[in-house]
Amino acid sequence: MESQERLKPQDERVRRSKETVLKVTSELLAETGLSGVSVDEVSRRSGVAKTTIYRHWPTRSDLVIDACSQLSTSQSTPDRGSFREDITVLTKDIVKLLQSARWPSVLPSIIDAAEHDPDLAQIHSGIQVGHTKPYLEVIARAVERGEIPSTVEPSPLVATLLGPLFYRRWFSREPLDDQFVNGVIEQVLSIAKK
Amino acid sequence: MESQERLKPQDERVRRSKETVLKVTSELLAETGLSGVSVDEVSRRSGVAKTTIYRHWPTRSDLVIDACSQLSTSQSTPDRGSFREDITVLTKDIVKLLQSARWPSVLPSIIDAAEHDPDLAQIHSGIQVGHTKPYLEVIARAVERGEIPSTVEPSPLVATLLGPLFYRRWFSREPLDDQFVNGVIEQVLSIAKK
Predict the structure, then answer these.
(1) How many angstroms separate the CA atoms of B44 and A17, rounded?
(2) Rounded to an integer, what distance in angstroms lies between the CA atom of residue B124 and that of residue A108?
(3) Which residues of B touch A187 (CB under 8 A)?
(4) Percent of all residues in chain A with a pLDDT value above 90, rounded to a whole number
(5) What is the full DSSP assignment across A21-54?
(6) What is the pLDDT of residues B111-151, one digit of tens each?
(7) What residue ranges define each of the domains in chain B, with the CATH number in brackets?
(8) Minimal CA separation from B191 to chain A, in Å
(9) CB contact B160 to A (< 8 Å)
């Protein structure tokens, strides 16, 4: 009992310092992109010793990857009873994330780094595909309910939804206004029903 | 006459040294991203004096922007007589560019820089929108021919086409195989006809 009680605050301290390090890494990523992230600078800003940082993340890449996953878009899976409603919730949610300050300003530096680093490219692709899980679940549920045919291929459907939104946010930088977003939703619904 | 003849090789020399500088800048962009491009390094690699570089491009930004526009995807506008054929030619062409070594590996560093530099963001958006010109021309011609209704909004239609392709290339990094690409073309055709 005694040792357990003594362990708790220590665990809590470890948890907090890990959290601080990830927060500082994310901030640095957002401010400067990947090139500005060094373990030295993270240590300096967070007040966490380099040895502690290296204990949790053996390399700078491990730290960056962890911070990337935390930064990125974990969306929860809605279950509103219809494909239209579920996909609308997911879309409005990702649009809100695309219009937020942090994640969309950091992602390009990860994409850039991935172009020059095959390992990071694979991890980045994995994170991105992982983030489509709520979409795949919503599609699978719609197939189960018989709302969309089982012949619909989930992965291209996700590209049909996210592609135009990402294109406007990062490439053409045109506004993600309601008219555009609703148009994308209607496209996905009409394509899914074929 | 005499002065004109003497001027020609000089013009040719200027043209060549500008070309070399832009080529070296593009190479640096592709290798290291934006952060690796300095006028010093461009001068060193190209053998063109810094004063000459600054004569043509007053700032590093001017040079980078010029190199970016040259790097990027200038597509010619097909005119095959039908919307289906024109859009197919444009799509196959951009997919080929997306699978090439240079442009797709450089663009993310421009996008990244644009997130942190409002001026570059505006220029980048302008370049991207400029590159949709062949698409807009093909759409306008299809409307003229009565193939697609005049109520179709061109810019979202371009996002429907380019978005899923760009999403796969830079975000999920899934293959741009024929099945996927043809699916995107069919989606655009079916949406345009509404």
Answers:
(1) 45
(2) 14
(3) 160, 187, 191
(4) 59
(5) HHHHHHHHHHHH-GGG--HHHHHHHH---HHHHH
(6) 888 887 777 788 788 888 888 999 999 999 999 999 999 99
(7) 2-69 (1.10.357.10), 83-192 (1.10.357.10)
(8) 7
(9) yes
pTM attached to this predicted model: 0.83
For the record, the structure tokens of B84 come out as 């289906």
Mutate to test the interface with A, among B103, B173, B193 (most CBs of A within 10 A): B173
For residues B139 and A48, what is the distance between their CA atoms, to the nearest angstrom?
A: 57
State whether A160 and B165 contact (CB < 8 Å): no
Coarse DSSP helix, strand, coil percentages of chain A, rounded to the nearest 5 percent: 75, 0, 25
Question: How do residues A20-42 score in pLDDT, each as one tens digit?
Answer: 999 999 888 777 777 778 999 99
A154 touches chain B (CB under 8 A): no
Tell me what the mean pLDDT of segment A29-57 comes to: 89
Our CA-based measurement puts residue B180 at a distance from the nearest CA of chain A, in whole angstroms, of: 7
pLDDT, position B3: 47
Exposure class string for A37-67: b at 16+ Cβ within 10 A, else e: bebeebbeebebeeeebeeebeebeebbbbb
